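Lay summary. Proteins are chains of building blocks that fold into shapes, and those shapes determine what they do. In this project we predict the shape from the chain. Here is one chain we studied, written as its sequence of building blocks.
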Amino acid sequence: MIPIRLSLAGFLSYRQPTEIDFTPITLACISGDNGAGKSSLLDAITWVLFGQARKRDDAIINAFEKRALVELEFFYEGNIYRVQRLKERDKSVVLEFHILQSPRIEGFDAESLKQIPRQEYLWKPLTESTVRETEARIRQTLRLDYDTFVNASFFLQGKADQFTQQRPTDRKRILSSILGLDIWEEYRQRAAELRKQIEVEIGRMEGHLQEIRNELAEESERRARLREVEDNLARVEHLLKAKESLLESARREQEALALRAQNVAMLEEQWNKALANQEELGSLLAERLREREQLINVIRHAEEIRHGYTAWQQAKTQLEAWEQVAQQFRQQDALRQQPLQAIHLEKVRLEQEAETLRERERAIEQIRGEVDRLQKEIAQLEQRSIEISANLDRKSNLEVELREVLETSAHLKAMNERLRQEMHELEERIQQLSRIEGAECPLCGQPLDPEERQTLQERLREQGRAMGNRYRQNKYELTQSSHKAQEIQQEITRLSALEMDGKALEKELAEHLARYEHARNQIQAWQQLEQPRLKELEEVLAEERYAPEPREELRRVEALLKEIGYDANAHERTRRAEIEGRVFEAQYLELEKAQATLKAIEREIEALQQRLKQGEQDVRSLEGAYREAKEDLEQARAQATDVQVAEQEYYRVKEETNRWREAVGQARQRVEVLEDLKARLEEYQEMREAHVRKLQHYRTLERAFSKDGVPALLIEKALPQLQSKANDILDRLSGGSMSVEFITQTAYKDKHRTDLRETLDIQISDGAGVRDYEMFSGGEAFRVDFAIRLALSEVLAQRAGARLQMLVIDEGFGSQDAQGRQRLVEAINSVRQDFAKILVITHLEELKDAFPTRIEVEKTPQGSVVQVF
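And here is the predicted shape, written in a compact code that computers can read:
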């Protein structure tokens, strides 16, 4: 894989969008201070390809950003690919994988790539339906997973010994993956699956064979069982025929009894019908007798009914006359509704207006109280305003005083600085006078005797004491001035706050004055307009001086109604009399009906009495016939055979016969199946032998495909080349003092075992002898790591499998001395032609100029930035 372009934003320390063009780079040094973000560039490559870095999930997102985005374009096996991975906070990863469809790139050529405008690139998506499936496709394209990629191509910070520090068995696994031998593990798994399927099939066949052998062992027992059940079947079939004949005879007797029972039931039904007919005739006769009595009772009150009927007709005639007069009255009375409605509406309107004014009167009373309260509050606010104004005048005086105190403090500070300098110089002059031994003054160069020197020293000390006293006095005054300035400043701060209170107070006073003026205007409007109107409305309502025209219309209509002469009470008395007399109309009609139907009812009563007498004779005759037939039927049933018992016995024997028939069928089938079982036994034995041969074949393949089989042989074949390459590089790094040897087999700790254990031990030979890799540390161990890692990369570059054309060394020089670092640089240059890209990460200043290209990483407040030199 050869990187072409890397773009990242919001990833780890890279906050702003950053892009690195790798096309002109073959060997470069990535330099910068510790923590600048050098290793984050490698994390970006592994994260975009495999989803793995030093940090995971949201931790890879820059603290100041909401998402991390990395995009990598690379050349591999004649194609250019683009991978883009995006992670937003608290959301899932979005992964896209593309291949360049056009223009077609014939080989990796930096100059050719520069000549093709990127806007002409046409990408074909290779993205799968899920992130996991897309990552699998990337690994399949590169023929590498994360571990193999890092172990073979990266010298990561703190992981330079990632391959050599693995356990011997894991070294072999990683080397197998690097060499593209993972396919043999797939072959082994497929062979193992097929072997397991054949083992299951053989086990299933063994079960069938054992079942067949078990059944064939029962042949004599099955034939004896068949003869036994056939004999029992013949016996129960003979018994079944006898039971069937007995059941048929019992059923014929039962049919004869059923006919006689039908005759008895018919006689009983005729008898019951005769009894029911007699009961119906008796009920009908009683009904007709009641009807005759009712008719006679009606005819008995004939005179009273006729008199009431005549009075009802007279009341009906009078009611019709009153209805005509009432119709005229209602027509005139309807004319009253309109003036009444107008009078009512006017009254309601005036009452609503009066009530509105009363509510306004109550509100004015509240406003009067509000006016009194506002007058008091306005007086208080005006007094507070006067007090604040007086305090604000004092603030101006304090500000002037504060400036004077600060100026005095500044003057005292400057004077003390000058005094300190002068006292320091004076002390130096006194010390010079004390150190002199000659007769000349060290200050002016004039001759100076001891007495003059003593006098001069005393005068200088006196001058110093005066300066010190003045210095201390100034310091005291400074302290006092500082305290006074603090007190004045506090008072000014308090008065400043009071100034804000004054502004708020002015605003509040203005609001109170506005509310007071508004309230007084409302009271004045009430007294001038609304209060007189309320008094007027109350007088109009009390004297009913409203709606004069509707009232005049009402008086005219009432005069017309009086002329009609309608008496509602008399009308109502006549209506009640007519309603009460309606009963005589029905009674009169019933009287006429009773006189017409009385004779017919008497003739029907006589006929019913005759039919009842004849029916009594028929009932007695039918009862005698029924009782005689019933007695004969009971005697016949007592002497007949029980059909239910016969049926139970017949079905019991029939069920037993069926069981024996089924037993005969089963026994015959178990005997007949023996011949088929013998043929199937031979067939299964032949199939089992064929599967056993296949099983041995797949077991052989499984052992051949395992890590101790063909892959081990391929590793054994590759190790000499790897060892030769590693020793070539190690020879240059150690000045010919070190060499490496790979041990692939070793003896078991168990002395009784004669075979060898598969391993991948690393032994180093140096001036002290031969030792295991684990015995080395520091610079020597790193040289071995570097040599083996470069050897792995070179071997892979020559193979047709996974090709690693990029080599990255992250912080690999810190453990080396100056000579070791120089040898590492020389070794890197010696393999430069074997790799398309070599990137060396270091923070050592002396190594920056050892490489043709430098990628400088710098940490800024806006995140890491990259420059290529």
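What the prediction tells us: The chain has 16 helices and 15 strands.
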